[in-house]
Every structure is written in C-alpha cells, then in structure tokens.
Specification:
It is a single chain. 23% of the residues lie in helices and 15% in strands. It has 284 residues and is of the alpha+beta class. It has 2 domains: 92 residues, no CATH class; 116 residues, Mannose-Binding Protein A, Chain A. Pfam families: Lectin_C. It comes from Anser brachyrhynchus. This is C-type lectin domain-containing protein.
C-alpha cells in the first residue's frame, strides 16, 4: 500500500503460514523483504495484514499502521487472518493455535416477545373456555362450599357485633353507665345513641341482666300518663304477666312513676327524679 491510497491488497500475495501479524508502531514503518521474518524498526502497536510479496526483492515497502491517518476503511478481518502475532517482535518458534471459545448462547428480544404473546394467548383461551363451559358449575360449587363453611362457624366469629364498651346477648347490645342520672336524662342519652332504655322482655334476658348489673338501674317503662298502666318507650303497654315486679310492687302512686331493676332481677317503682345508673339496649 502506498501513500494516500487505502485498501487491503490480497490478490497477488502468497500467504506464508504464521506470518503476517507483526507488531509495529502506529505509523508507516519499513519492511525488509530480505529477512524471513522482516527487520522491524521499533516495536509498538499491533497490525494485521497479508503483507508477503509475490517474490522476494530488495527495497522497502511501506505498511500502514493501525493508528495512521490513512487507515483502511475496510481492514482485513481478524478472524480470516491465517497468521499468529509475534510477541516479542522477533523470530520465535511457532506456537500452537488455541481454538476460540464457543459463543455464549443468547436469546433475542424477538423470541421473548413471541413466547410471551403465545403464553398470553393460551391463558386468554383457557379463561374463555372456563367462562363458557364451567362457570355455572364452579359458581354453584363455590356457593355450596361457602354455605357449608358458614354453617360450621359459631356465631360472633371475627369482629365483635357490638362497639367497644358494649356487651352482646341474644341479638342485642347493652351499655351499662358508670354514672347516675334522672330517668328522663337516661332515656334521652339512650335515644341519642339510637337505642332505648333497658326493657326486659324474657326470662333469659332477665337472667343475663343480673350478670351485668352493678347496682339498681333504670328500666325503660313509666306510668306517667295513666297511673298503674306501664308503657314502653314506643308507647306499647306492658302486661302484668310479662313483668317481674317484686311482691307488693308497684306501690308508690303518683310519686313513683318510673321503674328500676335490682341485681336480683326484680322490679320496683321509683321517683323519676332519683339519681341512678342506667342500661341502654339496642341492635348491633
């Protein structure tokens, strides 16, 4: 190669085994054809090329180094070079050429996209078949399993049905006050909470109330309108046979128009202005 021309001359050259990879500085350097390996002036940089002449002759031929300004735009490919580098840049016995390591396997993005799309398509198809064929059977089975599981569970499993500070019994929540007030104030307090002052409607409830009472507490009945006719908060009349009056009660006349329940579960009439604890009763 000469001066400003750029190219790799290959056609007229006869390759000599293990010769053609020389170490040279990054500029044009002289090559002496008379020496079997070449006389090198300087040893820096690596250059590849088919540089053998068709026949030995005197004189010098310039070879372009890899760092030169006139570098070939299409250099001879390294993998096609039949020669082996020399290090140091003197004549040395030939070395055994080691095979290149196998290329690492790789997976292209296109293949990953195709695999993902195929998996998504299969998933969609299975879902469609499931909805079209087995949705009704699966739904019926799910409902049956849910009902069976609910039947096994005891009541009040999980969160308590009543708020904190309330107790639960027979589908009702009960709140026992820690202070005292008149009958009217106690009734207003319970109504403000969406509940009512305690009304004992059954023997079971009476027994339960005895376990939570700390002292005599207000009942949600009164005979203010008609003496001797006791009514609940909703205006319904409480029959005598459904009450739990202590013997000889009620006996206070017009001065005792409100009622209390004692710890033993019996009822007494009391003045409505008395200061007593109270119990609110309501639905969960």
């Amino acid at each position: 190669m000469w001066g400003g021309s750029c190219g790799c001359s290959r056609a007229p050259l006869r390759p000599i085994p293990r010769q053609g990879c020389i170490r040279a500085p990054p500029f044009l350097m002289p090559y002496q054809w008379g020496h079997p390996w070449g006389e090198l002036s300087g040893a820096a940089g690596m250059m590849y090329g088919n540089i053998e002449p068709s026949q030995p002759r005197e004189g010098q031929k310039w070879v372009l180094g890899p760092g030169g300004k006139e570098a070939c735009s299409d250099p001879c490919p390294m993998e096609e070079n039949p020669y082996e580098p020399l290090d140091p840049p003197i004549a040395v016995p030939s070395r055994k050429h080691l095979p290149d390591p196998p290329a690492r396997p790789c997976c292209s993005q296109e293949r990953l996209v195709l695999v993902g799309a195929a998996a998504l398509g299969v998933s969609v198809l299975l879902n469609v078949l499931l909805l079209a064929i087995g949705s009704r059977r699966i739904a019926a089975l799910t409902v049956a399993l849910d009902e069976a599981e609910m039947a096994k569970q005891p009541p009040n499993v999980g969160c308590p049905p009543c708020s904190r500070g309330w107790t639960y019994f027979e589908d009702s929540c009960y709140f026992h006050s820690a202070t005292t007030s008149t009958w009217e104030s106690a009734q207003r307090f319970c109504l403000a909470l969406g509940t009512r002052l305690l009304e004992v409607d059954s023997p079971k409830e009476r027994t339960y109330i005895q376990t939570i009472l700390r002292d005599s507490s207000w009942l949600g009945i009164t005979d203010k309108e008609v003496e001797g006719t006791w009514k609940r908060a909703d205006g319904t009349i409480l029959p005598r046979e459904q009450s739990s009056w202590h013997r000889n009660e009620p006996n206070g006349g017009q001065q005792e128009n409100c009622a209390v329940v004692r710890k033993d579960g019996t009822w007494f009439d009391y003045p409505c202005t008395s200061q007593l604890p109270w119990v609110c009763e309501g639905q969960p």
